[in-house]
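Weekend entry, working from home. Most of the wet-lab plans are on hold until the incubator is repaired, so I used the time to fold the two sequences that have been sitting in the queue since the last round of cloning. Logging both here for the record. First:
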Amino acid sequence: MMDRFIIRAATVHDAPFLAEAIIEAEKSGTDKLSYSTIFNLSEDDVRKYLINILEEEIDGCELSVSSFIVAEFDGKAVAALSAWVEGLEDVPSTIIKANLLNFTLPKECIVRAMSLNEVIRELHVEYLPKTIQIGACYVKNEFRGNRLLGILNKQIITRLLKENPDVNSVWVQIFSCNISSLKAFEKAGYTVVTTRESSKKEIENYLPSNKKHVLTKNFK
């Protein structure tokens, strides 16, 4: 079966599937979608806005088509993983993402998110410049068990390291509730270097968990 998968860079035509991947990754195995809870949007509206953002094809953040690699089966994308080199153009990915959201979402959504900043910021972890950052990881249910995320992870990191020889580490942030992802990355040689835990109980109204792990793997 593995020889029927095609691994390729994502294109703008994959935007609906990439939006699905971002949504499922954000949920981290729960039913809590931060884009819905923070911006007060339905999941359908989140999907619509994410597709709009992806179709802008702005590089350099977790909402960029160019950050994704996909696995295709019988002509359809069935798995996706995003990774990018942080601050490659000296602009933090968080700024690029914020600008995209500010441009795309209704003003009232942005105002609501700003009002919640005091609650959710304890789990915010700054990305280190000139490092590879892993974003959304997703495989459709019926295709799990084929090691697709491992294959995608290896291919995209190999490509980014080749294109950016000064980069020597890869980082990923995982909510503590996402035990399967945590175990998979640890098995792949990643090490937990930081754990953030919020003291605010209400944070669980907006995020999948009140605890986040930061893992890294060095290549040089």
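Second, folded right after the first finished:
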Amino acid sequence: MRLPDLSGIQLPREPARLVRRSLRHVAGTLLGLVLGPLLLLTALLMLVRWRGPFRRVRGWELSRLRRAYRLQLDDQDGDSDGDDDRAGGGAFLGGRRALLHGALAGLLGYVMMDLLLLVAAVVLGSFTQSFYGSPVTLEFDLWVISRPAPSVLLIFGTSSLVAAALYAEFAVWLQALLLRRWTDVVRTDALESRISRLLTTRRGVVLAIDDERRRIERDLHDGVQQNIVSLSVTLARARRATDPARSSQLLEQAHAQSQALIDEVRQVAWRIYPTALDEHGLASALDGVAETSPVPVHVDVRLEGEVPQAVESAAYFVAREAVTNVVKHAAASHVRITVVTLAESDRRMLRLSVEDDGIGGANPEGGGLQGLARRVAALDGSVSVDSPAGGPTIISAEIPCD
């Protein structure tokens, strides 16, 4: 069976997607100015047993929530006005709930209309006066401001549009917050953002793997391969030597080189993935980092419950790369590694902190730190760097454990 080719599937570019989302939210909030009062009026008509208009308007309102706000609602929760309500959906939005929801939608829509009128007045007025070359005058009781029309158009027009988009986002959040009191609500546009992030982190994982492969190749070429060549040359000289004492001396030298080569191969393998991480856990692997570091390292590990192997591996590599950077660049006299598990809302997080007393100035855009950020992002975590000039430097990582 052949798998479908998904390589051509692409999400819209993030800026364009955000613009379309903002336009939907603005239009949806403005439409609430119409549907909100209608929902209030038809809900009151139910007092005289006239339910048809209310059901129709409620259907329009549910359509507005789904299409403009991308709210996925559980229509089976809450009370009902009848069996046909349960079949048609929206049973949670009835009676007094419809009055409250309609009042909120109407109020938010009114404020949006007022805001859009302000945007239109500023943009169109400034644009028109730009052709005449006359300034825009803003008069208050205490002072009068006069500025060129193009600057007013650029500054106030842009800020007004941003304010409209932010207010629309607030309106969606507030209505979703109210609806969650009565039913389950999922924002599908948030799922779209989640998919976009997963695609980005997937690409980051590929880059991180490529970086790791290049590092392994560099370690093998610059270290192991050169020592193997040197060992081969020593053995060849011992083979050609006619003096038994000289031959024995070269063989002793080759034996010492072979032991050093074995140690170096072990070091390369340890840098790729330490066996202590699987056999004894994260605390033991970090103790190994502290033992091999020329800078004193204090390790404090406090883990509660079981931590997935992938999370331990990511935390280990973050700590090891951070210590390596300290040794190379920080001129520090002490490093502290702290690993704890914390319960945050409905998730359990592993929090790693590597702090040194060096000179600071670490570059978050550096290849090593970016590689760590990509590795942690693949597990839905994040890495932050706080390194002011003069120090101290704190590299933190948070990784979900669930």
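Plan for Monday: verify the second prediction. Residues 188-240 form the longest helix (53 residues).
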